[in-house]
Specification:
mainly alpha, 0% strand
Length: 235
């Protein structure tokens, strides 16, 4: 019945670059997640009652709980996308894609409000599951790109420090920078993972291995630069 059992719950919305808007959206996401979980538990209770008694009243209670759960599911997912979108200021194309998904989810709640029977919700859920796949693809792409953008900013800061300290970047760090670039490129390549109709093929977890390699290269650059600067200062 349920189109999502939230693949993205374990995925980190928490950007390294925090601002007031992100904090607002992030807080709202956690609030909406709590509401969804409460509604989902209520749905399970009503479903259990219907399975036991099979009365007209218990059926209507189950239908009402189904509607509440699906509505809160979409609101929660939309709040997640809004939070994620604020972390992608350097990647406007992905921001536009997420905004499109947000607007679509809003339209789906208008549709849900007009559904009245269990059969209606079954049909809607089946259709939603298929149309959700591009949303999850863009979530995984965004999570990868968000981390790359953040690390690239750190690299630029390190290069600026090196330049102002008269450190020869090309001599001391070019090789490790290339490792960093290659790891990011490989992480991005996972975004091209082929998707099949009706089934999402996740790729963020695979890309995380490359993102870790990029992170390690960046940390190594930072440590080496620190060592050079300490030597230059005479300590």
């Amino acid at each position: 019945m349920w189109p999502l059992l939230f693949l993205f719950f374990t995925k980190n919305v928490l950007a390294q670059d925090s601002d007031n808007l992100l904090d607002k959206y992030r807080t709202d996401y956690f609030h909406q997640r709590d509401i969804y979980q409460q509604n989902y538990q209520q749905y399970l209770n009503k479903k259990h009652s219907f399975d036991q008694y099979r009365t007209t009243t218990s059926l209507q209670d189950k239908v009402d709980a189904t509607k509440s759960t699906l509505l809160s599911q979409n609101i929660m997912l939309r709040s997640y996308l809004m939070a994620l979108r604020t972390t992608l200021n350097d990647t406007p194309a992905l921001q536009d894609s997420l905004l499109t998904h947000e607007n679509w989810l809003l339209s789906q709640n208008a549709t849900l409000n007009n559904l009245t029977t269990a059969a209606d919700f079954e049909i809607w859920a089946t259709d939603f599951q298929k149309k959700y796949i591009p949303i999850q693809v863009d979530i995984d792409k965004s999570l990868i790109q968000q981390q790359i953008n953040h690390r690239q900013k750190i690299l630029l800061k390190l290069k600026d420090i090196a330049s102002r300290s008269n450190v020869d970047w090309s001599k001391d760090f070019l090789k490790k920078e290339q490792i960093f670039i290659d790891a990011n490129t490989e992480a991005l390549s996972w975004s091209q993972t082929r998707q099949f109709e009706g089934r999402f093929s996740p790729f963020y977890e695979e890309a995380k291995k490359n993102l870790t390699d990029a992170d390690n290269a960046l940390k190594s650059i930072a440590l080496d630069l620190k060592s050079i600067l300490i030597k230059k200062s005479g300590y």
